[in-house]
Amino acid sequence: MYISKIEIKNYKNFKANTIEFNEGLNVIIGHNNAGKSNLLRAMALIFNPSVKKNLSIDDFNKQLTLDELKNQPPSINVSITLSQEKEENLMGDDLVVVSQWLTKLEEPYEAKIHYEFCLPLKHQDEYEQKLSTATSVIDAWEIIDRNFLRFYTYKIYGGNLENQISVDSEYMKKFDFQFLDAIRDVERDMFSGKNTLLKNVLDFFMDYNIKSNQALNEAEKEQQIKDEKKKFEDQAKVLMDSLNQRMLEGKKQILSYSKDIGASFDNAEPNFAGGITDVELYSALKLIVEHHDGIQLPITHNGLGYNNLIFMSLLLAKMQVNASETYLGSNSKVFPMLVIEEPEAHLHPSMQRQLLNFLKQNLKANKVRQIFVTTHSTHITGALDLDELICLYKANNETRASYPSKVFEGNEESKKYVQRFLDATKSNMLFAEKIILVEGLAEQLLMSTFAEYVGKSLEDNHIAVINVGGKYFDHFLKLFNTNNPAAIKRKVVCITDRDPMRKELSSEGATYTKCYPFELNAEVDKYEYKTSKQDIVYSPNIKFYFQDELQGKTLEYDLVRFNPMLEMLVTGSMSNKEEIKALMKLFQEGKSIDEFYSRLSKSKENTRIIDALKQEVLNWSDEDKKIALIAARYLNSVGKGVNALELANVLQENLAKRGSEDFVEFVVPDYIQEDIEWVCEN
């Protein structure tokens, strides 16, 4: 069986939440304070015997209203559902452990375990009387803490909660809950044989060549191990005899003091004797780093990242020990679970992927039943299947859970697309509180700078800018379209170009090609025209922003459309720099449109621009035509990637001059300004 679901009520940031789990690997992601660690702590209340079960006042969910607190004492409830695996034949130990907790008696079987922390009924009347005097939520919690928390008790039940069947502690010991928290001192916890973890592992794997020999039966294995122990004890006796021989004269001096002080009596006196067993010698063993040249160094000379990996491997080895019925008999574990907080701590990105692969291999080898991981690492999420991800987030001050794979049910094409492109950069969208999706590198590089010109900060608002590499928004928006209850509710902005296009009507099989805004609908008898629009209806948390439908084209085009005299936009990598600057100067001086036409260099594309602007059907002012000409010429002269990087640097340097005479005014295109202001709203 496996943990398929957890229900949490009134515990820390969880008011009433149900979170579903997978059979194998469960990676829980989310921004800070989303509740990832609290989710693991809720599980530990049931499965970890070393966790304190009596809670404090701060462990309650503080979103309860005053009326709710007055009506009844607050309680904390955690329910775990255990389900039969898809290909599991529920027999033997599994069935024995959960048999009394079954809530579904036909396949697939289900069982439940409940943790409850509550005020006993005998204090109910006194509670209602004292709480009736509370005038605020803060006052109510103080009364509960001061007068009633000491009476609170916890219980762990199995099966249907209303039956209140207490769970046998012997059965709970069958769950092996190995927890590695985010704040850990692995050097303290593992590098000496005096430590229980390493000692248990060493004891289990001692004589492993015999224990794992399939050609021997159990009696033969036991006899060979006994022979090895006897052989060791004989060798140890030689050492002890040698030690006693070296101490012969010194011992006489030591013992003479005991005789003088009167410690010898009744024909008896102190002496030294003893032996060494293999188990006692474990404490002398320490992990080391041994290089190829034979040089040995303490394990503490490793970096923290390597030592964390070693510690995790020892934890998995310990779980193998705990699950061995041959070694532990009836004390062996049935449900091994590995729980890791932030495994990326101290690990290089490539090592994070290596760790992930290692954990998956242990799952396949059945060395662990389930693995639960919390992470902030985009490198880990970028290497996962969507099915393995669980996203915790907050919306309207409430904790919610989302399952990225479920939003794609019935749409495998989009799921495969997102799975393929959800790398370390793009998976940042799963962590951010708000998201701006853009279709190209230029917007990605410039958006943060644009926000500063608007007086906003994308970083302060926890906004991620994600380049989806084209007009592929719909694939990604399935993750956030809250018309699907499995989606993540976050503000999402999509910035996309109008990209006016046309195709010839007379040419069979003709395809759409790019055109200028001033060419739109100019020759309807010859061309069919279109521009990009939002065709799909999404939930209100998603908005699209385009350039102007009649005069917009692309980002680069609109940069000049809103700043037709700004020579700062002409960067070093562009072609036709002097010509564009000359056109900007003509605009500043108010020259006629004909002077613009005459200033253009001779080319087929420039002739096309002039002819289109001269068409009588174009009902534009000369001012609009001049701006469109400069914008078209600018667009045709940039290399998008390099130009965007240069432009970002130039605009950033200009920002540093804000407040001085050297600062140059730059107008952010209106559609970008609107999207930044909307996404930055609370």
From TrEMBL:
Identify the residues that the record assigns to the OLD protein-like TOPRIM domain, covering every copy.
430-499
InterPro entries cross-referenced by the UniProt entry: AAA_GajA/Old/RecF-like (IPR041685), Bact_Antivir_Def_Nuclease (IPR051396), P-loop_NTPase (IPR027417), TOPRIM_OLD (IPR034139)
Stretches of the chain forming a coiled coil according to its record: none
Q: Where are the membrane-spanning stretches? A: none
The cross-references to Pfam families, in alphabetical order and at most eight, read: AAA_15, OLD-like_TOPRIM
User: Superkingdom, according to UniProt?
Assistant: Bacteria
- SUPFAM superfamilies from the xrefs? P-loop containing nucleoside triphosphate hydrolases
Which ranges carry the Endonuclease GajA/Old nuclease/RecF-like AAA domain? 1-380
Protein's name according to its UniProt entry:
AAA family ATPase
Identify the species of origin.
Ureibacillus galli
